[in-house]
Amino acid sequence: MASIKDIQEEIIDEFSMFDDWMQRYEYMIELGKSLPLIDDQYKTDDNLIKGCQSKVWVHAELDDDKLIFTADSDAIITKGIIAILIRAFSNQKPQDIIDADTEFIDEIGLKEHLSPTRANGLVSMIKQLKLYAVAYQTQLK
Amino acid sequence: METSLDIQAIRKDFPILQRQVNGQPLVYLDNAATSQTPDQVVNTIVDYYHGYNANIHRGVHTLSQEATDAYEIARQKIQNHFNITHSYEVIFTSGTTHGINLVATGFTSFLKKGDEIVVSAMEHHSNIVPWQMLCERTGAILKVIPMNQEGELLMDAYHDLLSDKTKLVFCNHVSNALGTVNPIEEIIEAAHKVGAAVLIDGAQAAAHIKPDLQALDVDFYTVSAHKMCGPTGVGMLYGKEEWLKKLPPYQGGGEMIAEVTFEKTTYADLPHKFEAGTPNICGGIAFGAALDYMNSIGFDAIAQYEDELMQYATEQLLSIEGLRIYGTAKHKTSVISFNIDGIHPYDIGTILDKLGIAVRTGHHCAQPIMDFYKIPGTVRASFSFYNTKEEVDILVAGVKRAKNMLV
Fold first, then answer.
1. Do B344 and A54 touch (CB under 8 A)?
2. What string of H, E and C letters represents the secondary structure of A92-138?
3. What is the pLDDT of residue A49?
4. Could you say which residues of chain B have pLDDT below 50?
5. Can you give the pLDDT at residue A117?
6. What are phi and psi of A27, to 5 degrees?
7. Mutating which of B22, B30, B343, B346 best tests the A interface, going by the most A Cβ atoms within 10 A?
8. Which domains does chain B have, with CATH numbers?
């Protein structure tokens, strides 16, 4: 099982192939289309992340000692961003998710989405993934 | 495009229009959110801080007198621009929202349970929430003027809503989300027949239309300077003298008093009764400069040019398959709200931003309108007199490119 760091490196590698923003965005949109969709029963207001112009639902469940995330959004670029996050953080141990950093977002040229004032809520999304990890970490103990 | 305006010369007054965004020349089409500021206004701000920054209405020294004079001259410029009877009917505010809250709070003592307040279905949140709060305080009931699919108010329904219970009517002059120019003459006249007061939110109209407030016979009218080439944080509330005398002060503090003892305070005369504390002196003066600037270009020429720009943009955008425009009123101005089938407005806005094109996406603080159309939001392009046909072409090409990427 690849570590979060390894997966992030892999994503950085993939994005380094692109020369301009358009190719990066087109790739992100493709990733968005392949996002592991959240089961409809979890598309509830409770699972809705606030602070996004687009709607984002995230669901987490424990599989043995690993945390699995599924998600969806009504905007495709947002879905692409979530797809990248989920690829990096899903199917990992909660403690590793808590400890992971998110600088790879910078390195793949999506830095502008990390600003806390940006209305896409990428920051709230990361926070939500980490909060789930903290909650399940407590449960594992 | 036929216009008497020298658009290229006008653009030189706005240095920001020369900058690049994401490596592309900026195409600024978010004028309904805020307009850009010309050098003439920026220089007024610089001159104030370089030359005569001082507190007003109280100093005996020269700077204070100069600042006071400039501030009061700005008030007169506003009076003249909006054709207001007395300069003391012009209240400086921090912006439209402040003006609305001042009136809504003041009306608390005039309303009783069962009284009715009428608002239009196409209001901005700032024109809904203060009235809901007023209703909670007083037990008054909020009634809504419905609209049709084109984004026009149903005036028959409006007339039916009015009765002797109606105490207040609120409506925007121009809808920020749809661009509809509302028939405020008819709205005001009908409200007055049942004895109701009318507040018109002119925030979105003032950059495009020069209203004659005496001819309109409106009770209150409020605008923000930053939507008409002025700075942020300043605006004006017009109120008829009789209403301003009746309304209680909104905030207590310096400037708004005549005499203070610990037993009793006598309030100052108009307009100072509503201008507690040190005001945005520089902002007020710059607001006057912004009106001078826009009047030097001329509102008739501005309206005609912006209308041509909007017509052209409408035609070009509609040539894109799957594009739908929200707000197709016969009488509208400078705003095009749209979506493309199957694409979230946020996605289009994100791609346009990468192309250097600034538009607004989202619900535009008008969720009831979005609920009406059953959409999460729209992409909104809004035009000013310094925009060009070429910029419309860049927008249209950008939307096509976004569509190709996103579908």
1. yes
2. ECHHHHHHCCCCHHHHCCCHHHHCCCCCCCHHHHHHHHHHHHHHHHH
3. 81
4. none
5. 59
6. -65, -45
7. B346
8. 7-30+298-402 (3.90.1150.10), 42-295 (3.40.640.10)
pLDDT at B283: 98
Of residues A11 and B58, the one with the higher pLDDT is A11
For residue B403, give the nearest of B348, B358, B326 by alpha carbon. B348
Q: Which residues of A touch B344 (CB under 8 A)?
A: 54, 74-76, 78
Contact between B346 and A120 using a beta-carbon 8 Å cutoff: yes
Distance of alpha carbon A123 from alpha carbon A134, whole angstroms: 16
Residue that has been written with the tokens 């008829």 in this structure = B240
For residues A23-29, average pLDDT = 91
A69 catalytic per annotation: no
- pTM here is 0.91
Q: Which residue of B has its CA nearest to A80?
A: B347
Rounded CA separation B109/B247 (Å):
9
Tell me the two tokens of residue B50.
Answer: 């370089």
Residue whose token pair is 């909060």? A131
| Cβ density class B121-143: b for 16+ within 10 Å, e for less | bbbbebbbbbbeebbeebebebb
Residues in chain B: 407
| One-letter amino acid of A58 | V
Give me the count of residues in chain A.
Answer: 141
How far is the C-alpha of A118 from the C-alpha of B181, rounded, in Å?
Answer: 32
State the pLDDT at residue A52: 65
Residue A39: partners with Cβ closer than 8 Å, 6 or more residues away = A59, A70
> pLDDT of A47-61, one tens digit each?
888 766 778 889 999
For residue B210, the SS3 value is coil
pLDDT for res B255: 67
Mean pLDDT of A127-131: 90
Cα dihedral B378, B384, B388, B393 in deg (nearest 10): 0
What's the confidence (pLDDT) of residue A110? 77
Cβ(B204)–Cβ(B75) below 8 Å: no
Q: What's the confidence (pLDDT) of residue A51?
A: 62
Interface confidence, given as ipTM, is 0.85
Crossing angle for the helix pair A4-16 and A21-33, to the nearest 10 degrees:
130
Specify the pLDDT at position B296.
97
Nearest-CA residue of chain B relative to A77?
B347
Nearest residue to A125 (alpha-carbon basis) of A137, A136, A113: A113
